[in-house]
Amino acid sequence: MQTILEISGLTKTYAGGFTALKGVDLSINKGEIFALLGPNGAGKTTLIGAVCGLVRPTSGTINAFGEDMARNWRRLRARVGLVPQELATDMFERVQHAVGHSRGLFGLPPDPARVEEILRALSLWDKRDAQIRTLSGGMKRRVLIAKALAHDPELLFLDEPTAGVDVELRRDMWRQIELLRERGTTIILTTHYLEEAEEMADRVGIINKGEILMVDGKKAMMERLGRTEALITLAQPLDTVPEVLSAFPVSLTEEGRVLCYRGGGGEGDIGGTTEVAELTKALTRSGIDYTAIDIHESSLEDIFVDLLDGGAA
Predict the structure, then answer these.
(1) Could you list the residue ranges that cross the membrane (predicted)?
(2) Long-range Cβ pairs for the range 277-283 (8 Å, 24+)
């Protein structure tokens, strides 16, 4: 698989001594959607800024499209698009002019047909003559995306693209991002919405305190780190876990009224749902009656929280 962006040993220490990035290594494949997850202050925006020329790294290298970005910054930057987290644009500018102007900033000639295509794709054509300040928050974010697409970048960064956007608009923007991928655009997005990454991303990277904790395919990550949780409501409370259940990862909660199973996942482990079935059989054989079972499979959010907790330990 072709690599479009290669980051090696990237660090950033600010004048006050705060280190935002600590030796980050990251490879992005051409044509993928990559989700970079992390809490506030984890280093996501600093990393994006370093690639886009907004932040000067302290050390390390950034290679884009097979070339050193530090040596060929102006030419390579023209192949990169950025949708910033902040709504940084002239609010009195009209939508169509703003998008056309962004195209000119990268030295491209006017192309009204391409601008119209972008605005129509983002459901902005009807707002083309409106001042940006008159638009809703969701529409303003669409304008930022349109401006970033004006010069047809091959690599697109989306920094919290759906922050403050309602669920309907968020899902509409997901569809637009998928269409961009179909056009061959490589997309790196940061998000606080874990379901967003779970819905769209091919691979997921988790960053905390300036360090990459993990990078893996979304499916592989969930299979390797995912867990099954089953809450079994017992007909009669137990004082302790019976010896016959000692082989299972279970504990008692709710004053002995609920048997809690947490297991499955992990390389080489038996599937969690299969083990829950074996657990219920063991309960039946032992004459331990139960009235309900609630089974929950780990989401990407569960894995994310677990990794951050482990990283903080």
Answers:
(1) none
(2) 278/248, 279/230, 279/232, 279/245, 279/248, 279/250, 280/232, 282/244, 282/245, 282/248, 283/232, 283/245, 283/259
Q: Give the total residue count for the chain.
A: 313
Q: What would the pLDDT profile of 191-223 be if each residue is shown by its tens digit?
A: 777 777 778 889 999 899 999 998 988 777 766
Question: Alpha-carbon distance 164 to 147, whole Å?
Answer: 19
**How far apart, in whole angstroms, are the C-alpha atoms of residue 283 and residue 115?**
65
Name the CATH topology of 3-222. Answer: Rossmann fold (3.40.50)
User: What is residue 313's predicted lDDT score, i.e. its pLDDT?
Assistant: 34
CB 14 within 8 A of CB 20: yes
Correct CATH for 227-297 of 3.60.21, 3.40.1350, 1.10.620, 3.30.70: 3.30.70
Q: Phi and psi (nearest 5°) for 136?
A: -70, 165
**Surface-to-core class of residue 209, CB atoms within 10 Å of its CB (0-12 exposed, 13-18 middle, 19+ buried):** middle
**Domain ranges across the chain:** 3-222, 227-297
Q: Are 234 and 290 in contact (CB under 8 A)?
A: yes
Going by their DSSP bridges, the two strands 250-253 and 258-263 should be labelled as: antiparallel
Residue 16 main-chain phi, psi, to 5 deg: -75, -5
Burial class from Cβ neighbours inside 10 Å (0-12, 13-18, 19+) for residue 184 reads: exposed
User: What's the mean per-residue pLDDT of the chain?
Assistant: 87
- Give the pLDDT of residue 49: 93
Residues 96 and 2: their CA atoms lie apart, in Å, by 35
Residue 181's SS3 state is helix
